[in-house]
Amino acid sequence: MRVLMFGWEFPPHIAGGLGTACYGMTRGLAKNDVSVIFVMPKAYGDEDQSFARIVNASDVETTYGHVGDSELWEKLTFIHINSNMVPYIGPEEFESYTRQQRESGRFDTQGDLWKERYTFSGKYGANLMEEVARYAMVAAQVARDMAGEFDVIHAHDWLTYYAGIAAKRVSGKPLVVHMHATEFDRSGENINQKVYNIERTGMQAADRVIAVSNLTRNIVIEKYGIAPQKVVTVHNAVRFASDDAREEERNVPDKIVTFLGRITYQKGPDYFVEAAAKVLKRVKNVRFVMAGSGDMMNHIIRRVAKLGIADRFHFTGFLRGDDVRKMFALSDVYVMPSVSEPFGISPLEAMKSNVPVIISKQSGVAEVLDYAIKVDYWDVDALADAIYGLISYPVLAKLSSQRGLKEVTNLKWEDAAAEIANVYRSVL
Amino acid sequence: MKKIICLYFQVHQPLRLKKYRFFNMGKDHYYLDDQTNRAILHKVARGCYLPMNDLLLQLIRQFDGKFKVSFSMSGIAIEQFRAYAPEVLDSFRALAATGCVEFLGETYAHSLASLANQDEFAEQVRQHSQTIKQEFGIKPKTFRNTELIYSDAIGAQVAEMGFTTMLAEGAKHLLGWKSPNYVYANAINQKLKLLLRNFKLSDDIAFRFSDRSWSQWPLTVDKYVGWLRDPDMPGEVINLFMDYETFGEHQKADTGIFEFMKYLPGAILAGGDLSFATPHEVAAKLQPVSVLHVPYATSWADEERDVTAWLGNELQNEAFRSLYEMRDKILKLNSPDMNHVWRFMQISDHFYYMATKWFSDGDVHSYFNPYDSPYDAFINYMNVLSDFKMEVDKQLALQEKEGNLQQESVPA
Q1: How far is CA B72 from CA B7, B67, B69, B129, B170, in A?
Q2: Domain span at residue A76?
Q3: pLDDT, tens only, A183-221
C-alpha cells in the first residue's frame, strides 16, 4: 500500500509534537508495509529519509494564474484564502521576467514564465492562511506528478487539509484526515472561525477521520458535527531513541518537580504554579522547574515572584534535544496539568525516563495510561496532594515509575500504524 | 551675584552575571561573565576614564588649583580597575594628588542596602571608606548614596556615621517653589548639609548634549556659561552631578563633548563671578537656607525620581527580599569568598535590569541592559541566587559540624 502524506513539519525542524508524531508514524507504517510519500513545505535536507520519501513542496513547480495548463483547472477548484500575496519567484525566473518587461514593455503570458516556484517559510507565521492556500495548489501539482504512485491520501491537521482535498480532487484517491488537535484545544472557547471552517471542511471532505484520542473524537463529533461512524480513534504511540536511558548527575539535593511544554493557556501552567506554592508551604526540600516558553511565560514569572517562591521555582526557557533528556533525567515528578490536551506525548517520554507522572484527566493520553496519577486540571489541591505524595513516599514513586516504564514501552508506533493501515484498507 | 559650581562625577561599572541556567545549579559556582566585564571595562577605560582623567589633570594644572571636581567610585568599580585596568587607578591617584579632587563615600557594592538593612548599609559604607583611604589616601567626608537615593531617615543615619554633607536629587516634587541652588539641611539631624543636583543643567550635558532634536542643540560653552550666569536663576551653588561615563561613552568623543569640557572651566572662571568648589568646601562655606523634608526615598532616576527603577515590580521585590533574607547566614559564615558573592549580588544594576517601566525612560534603561527582557534578568539572577543559597547552607552545615568536632575534642 502506498500513501501520499501531507504534513507541515518533520524532525529535526519542529515547532510542536506534530512533527514527532509524523516521524514515528511513518516508521511504524514502513514496518506495516506501507510506503509513504511525505509532502511538507520547506524541507531543509537533513531529515531522516530512510522511511519516507520527502518531497519538498518548495521544489515542485506549480501552475499559477489563469493562463497555461487548462487540464489542471478541470480538476482543481482554485482555493484562495484572503491572500493578496504575489507568489515568490525563483531568481532565474525573476530575472527573465524583469528583462522581458524592460524590453517589450508588456507581460508575455505564454510559456514557462508563469510556472513559478513558491518558497514556503515552513514556520507557523503571520501569513499562515496564505501558505495553507498555496500549499493546496502545490499539493494538486504533486498529486498529478505522482499519479499512479499512491493509493490513499493522508493529511495531518488543518494546515494540510486543503492540500489533502486538492490532491483528492485531482487524483480521485480516498482521503484520510488526522486530527492531532482541534481549534478548541488550542484556543479554548474563543476559536478562530477560519481555522474551524477549514477543519470542518477537511473532515467533511474526508473518507475517514482519525482522532488521536476518544476525547478528541468526541469533540469532532459534537462540535464539528461529523458522522460518528466516520471517526476512528487511533491513540498515538511514542518512539524512543536507544540512548535515552543515560543517567544524569544530580545537580541539586532537592526533589525536582517538572513541567515541560509550551507555557500557554492550553497546558495549564498556572495550576502548576499554584500547586507548587501549596507544596512549598509543607516541604522545603523540593524545587519546581518550568521548562518551555510561550505567551503566558511572563505572567507566570510574575505570579511566581508574587507568591514569593522564586528561589525554589526555576525557569529554563525552551529546551531542545539533549536538554530535554537531561531535564527528564533530573526530574522526580513530571506534571502535565493540561486544560485540554488531545493526546500529550511528553508524559510518555517522562515515564520512559523512569519519572512518575501526574496528568490531567482532560488529556487524551489519560485514556491509555493506568500507572499515571490523574487529577482534574483545576483541582490544585489534588495536584498538590499528588506531588506531595510522590516526593514524600518513595514506595509510591517507585511503583509508579517501574510500572509506568513497562506500560509506556508497550505503546509502539508499529501497533498504532497497523491500526492506521486498517483505516486505509477500509476506504480502498 | 557670586555662584559656586560644584562638579561631581559617578564612576561605577557593575559586575555582570553570566548566563546561568538551571542545569548549572549545584555544579557551577562561578557566576560572573568575566569576558564581558573585562571587555566593557577596557572599552570605557579607553573611551572615557583615561582621556577624561588626562583632560581634568591638565585643567587642574592650567588653572592652578581653581578648577575642582569630585568623584564617587564604587568598590566594585575599584575591584575591576585593580583586576583589568590598574592604569586607570593610577590616573585617578594622580588627580587625587593635586588636592583639587574630593572622593565621596558611598556603598561598596553600589547597592540598595540603605533600603533594606541599616546594619548592612553601615557596614558597606565603612568598607567603602576604607577602600578609598587605601587607594587614594583620603577619608571621605561627603556621602552620596547609590543613584542619589535619599530620605530623611537615610540622611540621619549617614550623619550618625560621621559624614557632614550628603548629595541628593533636586527633585521638583520635594522642592516645589524652592531652588536646588542653595544648601539645605536634613530634617532629622540638621547638622547634615544637603547639596541638591540641578537636574536641568546637569542633564543638559549628560543627556541632551548630542540630541539634535533638542531646541538648544548644539550646546556651546558660551551658551552654557550664559545659563550658569543667568541673573534670573538665583542661588549660591549650582550642583552638576552626572555619570562620569557621560564623557566619551553616553556622549561619544565625536559629539565634541571633550572639547566642550576643555573650554568650559576657562569660560566659567573668566568672569570672576563663578568659581569651583568640591562638595565638602561648599558645605563648609555656605549655610543651609532651610531644612528639606523627604519622607520617602528619592533618587536621580527617571521622571519619577523615586526608587521604582530598582524596586518597582514584584520581580524586583521578590529578588530583593530573597537576597537580604540571607544576611544573617552570610555574617555567621564569614567566608571571604562568600562575602564577595554577597557583595556583587547586591549591585543595584541587577535590579535595574528587571525593571518593567520601559516607557518614558526606556532609552536609558535599554542602553544599560544586557538582557533581552526583565524576565530573563529575573530568571538568571534567581538561578544564581538559588545556587548561592545552597552553597551557603552547605558551608554552614560543614562549619557547624567542624565546630562540634572541635568542642568534642576539648578535654573536659
Answers
A1: 11, 17, 11, 11, 18
A2: 2-237+417-427
A3: 888 777 788 888 899 999 999 999 999 999 999 999 999
